[in-house]
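User: Now give one protein:

AI:
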Amino acid sequence: MRFGRCLQGQPRAGVARHVSQSYAVRLISEVPVTQQYLIGEFSALLEELQPSPGDCLAAAVHDLRREVECSSLKMLPQLAREAMGLSDVICWTALERGDAAGFYRYAKAAVALGDFTDAAGLLPE
């Protein structure tokens, strides 16, 4: 994943001082990111898990995305656990339906979501 560049000539540890105090800052791979970035990336990754319209799981993904987009930083770990559980259900459902292409797409999205939640420190180890 791309997390942006550090300020030119600034050591990574000092970059956080240059970020406005009005933004909540979290570190991903030692590069500071804002709360808006975390929420936006989280929502975009959930969008990749979106089943086709009419699927009973589509509403669950939609609702979780909206909750992520309206949440505070402290709620993200709980929502990350819900997202990982939902991604598991979506993958298993695709397998049970014999939808190999769907399973491949959902599994790929689930791995990306897992990598993101791990890098963002949203889930305990």
Observations:
- The chain has one domain: 12-119.
- Residues 76-96 form the longest helix (21 residues).
- The first strand starts at residue 25 and ends at 28.
- Confidence is low (pLDDT under 50) at residues 1-27.
